[in-house]
């Protein structure tokens, strides 16, 4: 989507193909995803959802057409594949290191693997995330990899500290920036405040009665404040955010977050 937004005013035409139904559907949900789609469509980007790519047809070493699984053929001279990543940890299979079924290296809160004196950090690990009761998670963000490296280094230097970082990322498209903090997978509801049409909203992703992630656009610094609250060990209840968009902010800076 970031590539599409960059190319929208440069390429003759831009098409986005995805198996899902709405951009960012799994992470941001249908409403915010549809908002992102509209932003792109207003700039002329075309979407093909619920389908994948079947064939790339070229001529003289140059891409000419992309055939989709639904039979549609798109004229194209450039195709950018963004289809996810898998950890390149095959070489560790017989090393004695504990790997998950998806190939991630399991570490504890000090980034220590199950093997003495072996530490791991970054995109390849599953680590205990304190904001979700130390559930082992994989987070592929620069900020988290940076913190992992720091914690692993401190452990190696004999100054062990727990990993205590709240996931945070942002994306900028057409001058509009969505911020996101927390760990949303498994959310069961979304409480939205603001107005998508006015480019100003905050979306709370909840699981049971608790906010597990927050996304915003045009509502700074609410996502940073939520990250700070979570970092301080605080939490936001669903009742609170049903009552209003940001009443919980007053609890920042107090000792009872
Ligand atoms: C297209 C793209 C866009 C992204 N955008 C963002 C963003 O906007 N914001 C954000 O926070 N994050 C973003 N990320 C994620 C971010 O880049 C990663 O979370 C971060 O780089 C992870 O750092 P790392 O050190 O764990 O892994 P990497 O940065 O991938 O570094 C791993 C290094 O290990 C090397 N390596 C691999 N196998 C071996 C081996 N067997 N022996 C020795 N070396 C090896 C690799 O060559 C590589 O240099 C993006 C990622 C991609 C791919």
UniProtKB/TrEMBL annotation:
Needed cofactors: FAD
Gene3D superfamilies in alphabetical order: 3.30.390.30, FAD/NAD(P)-binding domain
Every FAD/NAD(P)-binding domain range: 1-149
Highest taxon above the source species: Eukaryota
Pfam families hit by this protein: Pyr_redox_2 (PF07992), Reductase_C (PF14759)
Family the UniProt entry places it in: Belongs to the FAD-dependent oxidoreductase family.
Keyword match Aminoacyl-tRNA synthetase: no
Domain Reductase C-terminal: start-end pairs: 168-241
An example molecular function term from Gene Ontology annotations: oxidoreductase activity, acting on NAD(P)H
Protein name in the entry: FAD/NAD(P)-binding domain-containing protein
UniProt keyword terms in alphabetical order: FAD, Flavoprotein, Oxidoreductase
Cellular component annotations (GO), alphabetically ordered: cytoplasm
């Amino acid at each position: 989507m970031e590539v599409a937004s960059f190319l929208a005013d440069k390429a003759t035409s831009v098409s986005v193909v995805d198996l899902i139904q709405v951009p960012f559907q799994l992470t941001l949900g249908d409403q915010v995803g549809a908002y992102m789609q509209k932003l792109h469509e207003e700039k002329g980007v075309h979407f093909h959802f619920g389908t994948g790519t079947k064939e790339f047809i070229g001529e003289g070493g140059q891409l000419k057409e992309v055939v989709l699984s639904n039979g549609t053929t798109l004229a194209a001279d450039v195709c950018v594949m963004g289809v996810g990543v898998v950890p390149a940890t095959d070489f560790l299979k017989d090393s004695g290191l504990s790997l998950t079924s998806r190939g991630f290296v399991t570490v504890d809160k000090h980034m220590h693997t199950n093997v003495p004196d072996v530490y791991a950090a970054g995109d390849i690990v599953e680590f205990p995330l304190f904001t979700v009761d130390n559930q082992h998670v994989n987070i592929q963000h620069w900020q988290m990899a940076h913190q992992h490296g720091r914690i692993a280094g401190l452990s190696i230097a004999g100054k062990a500290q727990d990993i205590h970082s709240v996931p945070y990322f942002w994306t900028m498209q057409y001058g509009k920036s969505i911020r996101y903090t927390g760990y949303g997978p498994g959310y069961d509801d979304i409480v939205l405040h603001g107005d998508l049409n006015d480019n100003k909203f905050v979306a709370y992703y909840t699981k049971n009665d608790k906010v597990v992630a927050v996304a915003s656009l045009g509502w700074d610094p609410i996502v940073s404040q939520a990250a700070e609250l979570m970092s301080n060990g605080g939490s936001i209840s669903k009742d609170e955010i049903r009552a209003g968009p940001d009443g919980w902010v007053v609890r920042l800076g107090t000792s009872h977050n």
